[in-house]
Amino acid sequence: MCGIVCAFDLKQKSEELRPQVLEMSKTIRHRGPDWSGIYSDDRAILAHERLAIVDPASGKQPLFSPR
User: Does the pTM exceed 0.85?
Assistant: First the structure.
């Protein structure tokens, strides 16, 4: 089981909202205690909590594409 927390279509700077998204992510850490990751840009912040059942070595998330 994993968990994802996201904030999209940001009206504030992502640096201002990042601590809030990290706090939200901590509340779902029990869903994926093996790895945590965060991605942010000007429009969105994504935080992921991962439970490493399959492919624990190379399954880091959140996944993103430059497109």
Answer: no
